[in-house]
Amino acid sequence: MRSHAHPTPAPPTPAAPQARRSDWATLGLLLPYLWRYRWRVGAALAFLLAAKAANVSVPVLLKYLVDSLSIKPGEAAALLVVPVGLLVGYGLLRLSTSLFTELRELIFAKATEGTARSISLQVFRHLHAMSLRFHLERQTGGMTRDIERGTRAVHSLISYSLYSIFPTLVEVVMVLTLLAWKFDAAFAWITGGALVAYIVFTVTVTEWRTKFRREMNELDSTAHTRAIDSLLNYETVKYFGNEDFETRRYDENLERLRRASLKSQTTLSLLNTGQQLIIATALIAMLWRATQGVVDGRLTLGDLVMINAFMIQLYIPLNFLGVMYREIKQGLTDLDKMFSLMEKHREIDDAPGAPPLRVSEGAVRFEHVGFAYDPARPILHDLSFEIPAGKTVAVVGPSGAGKSTLARLLFRFYDVNSGRITIDGQDIRTVTQASVRGVIGIVPQDTVLFNDTVQYNIAYGRTGSTRDEVEAAAKSAHIHDFIAATPKGYDTMVGERGLKLSGGEKQRVAIARTLLKNPPILIFDEATSALDSANERAIQAELRAAAQGKTALVIAHRLSTVVDAHEIVVLEAGRVVERGPHADLLARGGRYAEMWRLQQSGQGL
What we know:
By secondary structure, the chain is α/β, with parallel strands linked by helices. Helix 5 (140-182) packs antiparallel against helix 9 and helix 18 crosses helix 19. Helix content is 61%, strand content 9%.
């Protein structure tokens, strides 16, 4: 395949904070997930209407029940005539209201849970598809809090809108229609006016205080991030005796959160007081007019009871309308944040219709590669070298020369800015990322393990592996005897990031994991630089055995670990300054020979 430059865009510069989308736009993003359950939504709405119709019928039936008990003097015998039918009907209507409500919630539960699951899963997949740059810049604590609140927001939005707001509006329309039809329009005007005043007041005050709630959530995320970061770096805190310093910093965040919470609570009390005032005024007006109607003979005692029952039924949901609106607004804010995570730009993405990588031999070529994490600070300059199939090539050089960048580019954590990297002649940017990473195994300098068992961490190299396969990989990495000697064997928990294991033990787990994956291409990224001499020699032998017959890129700082490589590439300031076998480079007396003399005399690190 002909070599050619294939420039890519420069690394993205930090974007300005994205403006928050409107609430309707956020709801529009949620609707496609709900549309999958449209028949359930329709059935739930049908049960909702049935429940509200039964609920509105209860006061009407109560009116007839009260009126049927009104007796005149001398008609004491009428007391024996119990309106059994009305009593039974009253009980059935009460039962129907609860029954239809439960059926609505039961039939719609799958839609709510399914929607929350779909969105959460999509966010999780998207975050794993993001570039390394994104994950190096993110704050884990705050981001997980955003995802947690966003998932909860799906439940609250659906719950409050379908189970509270919409049913309340349906009931209000039914009651207003009944009041205007059966009595004079004044009853409907009083109720409608109170409703409008209540909604306007609630929306206005809630919009004003939303900024306080948002500030409180931001501070909550910040405090959570600080706590997570401090606990993850527990050892560093202990090394420098900074427990009090970390506690003070955390407390400063908690104090800011406390002040914001108090401000939010003060404005909440103002909102609640105003709402109660509007409802109380409407209740007094309605009951005064109904009482006058009874005194004047225009209304019966049953009518008064019915109007009072209607007001109580409306009063209860209206009393929570402010809470519901507030929660919906907050839910939309939280959901918007989670959707914003899904809209984060994927710096590294598969080309449309990209085929999988086809590996026959596993030869790797870096062709005129140029790269910079930041355009102002180039890392690699016109770098070219080849790792022949089945051979081991080592890259050495001082810190900052760009050695580890080669591994990140080969894994396609970043794309090159110029030139290209090929595997068996295929530009890795033209094939799928998954297929590229599937043929490469890495033993990194700092092995990070999952807080799970040894079995799980080794089997992670090829999920679904049997216990025998895991043990075979462990034996090849010379860690089986150590594992078997522990009380729980392969079920031993390794702790957070593998902290219960020593450096050599973690490296052997990493080697076993890579051996289990059995890829044709291996990367050893300073895999022994953090180990003592005895462990280094032992693990070097295991690495050489693992690399037999495979294409291997060895990134090293200690030259003694790469003397057996087929070729050694010397990097300096992102450029190849020398290349060749160990003996030839020593005989040449150049940069490599100088580094070798320094390290052998103990003056070089």
